[in-house]
Design goal:
The structure is a single chain. By secondary structure, the chain is α/β, with parallel strands linked by helices. It is 28% helix and 22% strand. The chain has seven helices and eleven strands. Strands 3, 5, 6, 7, 8, 9 and 10 form a seven-stranded mixed β-sheet that branches. Strand 5 and strand 6 form a beta hairpin. Helix 6 crosses helix 7. The termini are far apart. The relative contact order is 0.12.
């Protein structure tokens, strides 16, 4: 028995040439062995079927099966991603010695007022653990310096006592390991006055923490510890695109903990600035002025770059 498939709706209004093109395309797309030498003219075997709007089902069996599979795959629910925890960084990876930390707050370690710590240039870096291929985890500096530069300069842009904030990466360690002592030495080599070493941990799919140690680079001693923690907030019901990064910055724990940590770092540095005493500047020993000094006149009676009238 001959099985037939109607093309009345599929080929309606397209004419003989259109039917020829579509049959050729269907055969070539789905691997059916119809060669160009098989003419669709009046003397061909397939022409009576095309003339009546009918073609054998074998030409479109493969196309129909594939179309069904594709539509089934598109309508299937996406598999949920399985959360895999990253290697967790500890305080010993960022601190040269044991430090006391306050949960979700900051703590000034050096209680006595400092002298000459500010104004200062600040260096910052992030420590993360990675596998070295032999099932051992080693610390490294893997943050993008461009992102770090923009982020931390915007945090302290209203503090005149912070002259600049610059990040360092793995190559700034001079081939040494990413341990706190080596990182502080890199801070010192790059002429930073204070330095921040921090890390980020994902405690659960909805909870993240961020913690760091602030150093006096000249002495190499930690002066403050900072810790922040945040949880993912429920997405508002009126949001049409939950995956939009604009909304994730306001609800995702990884974004919220960065904002919280930046606020705590700003408040910590602000308190250190208030507790700092300016260093007394004195002329180098043995230095004497070349001539008599004149008292300061304000406003000046002459142009500062010209002599007296």
């Amino acid at each position: 028995m001959q099985v037939e498939f109607s093309l009345n709706r599929w080929g309606s209004g397209i004419g003989r040439r259109g039917i020829r093109r579509r049959v050729h395309h269907a055969c070539s797309d789905w691997g059916i062995g119809l060669q160009q030498k098989h003419s669709f003219g009046r003397g061909s075997e397939i022409w009576p079927w095309l003339r009546r709007g009918l073609v054998p089902l074998k030409l479109f069996t493969v196309a129909g099966v594939v179309a069904t599979l594709v539509s089934g795959c598109s309508s299937a629910r996406k598999k949920e991603e399985v959360w895999t925890p990253m290697p967790r960084v500890s305080w010993e990876h960022i601190a040269t010695r044991a430090v006391a930390a306050a949960p979700n707050s900051y703590r000034i370690i050096q209680q006595s007022p400092t002298t000459g710590l500010f104004p200062a240039g600040a260096a910052v870096t992030r420590v993360a653990l990675t596998s070295n291929g032999v099932e051992q985890l080693s610390p490294g500096l893997h943050a993008d310096p461009r992102n770090e530069f923009l982020r931390w300069n915007s945090v302290f842009d209203d503090q005149m006592a912070i002259s600049e904030v610059f990040p360092i990466d793995q190559r700034d360690l001079g081939g040494g390991p990413a341990v706190p002592e080596q990182i502080v030495a890199a801070f010192r080599a790059l002429r930073a006055r204070i330095g921040l070493i921090y890390a980020v941990n994902e405690l659960s799919p909805t909870t993240s923490e961020m913690f760091g140690v602030l150093y006096d680079v000249t002495t190499g001693d930690p002066v403050a510890s900072i810790h922040a923690q945040a949880e993912t907030l429920p997405m508002p019901e009126d949001v049409k695109k939950p995956d939009d990064p604009y909304h994730l910055w306001k609800t995702d724990a990884r974004a919220l903990v960065r904002q919280r940590f930046a606020e705590l770092a700003h408040a910590c540095v602000r308190e250190l600035i208030l507790n700092d005493q300016p260093a007394r500047t004195e002329p180098p020993p043995g230095w004497t002025p070349a001539g008599p000094t004149l008292p300061v006149e304000w406003p000046p009676r002459q142009h500062p770059f010209r002599g007296r009238p």
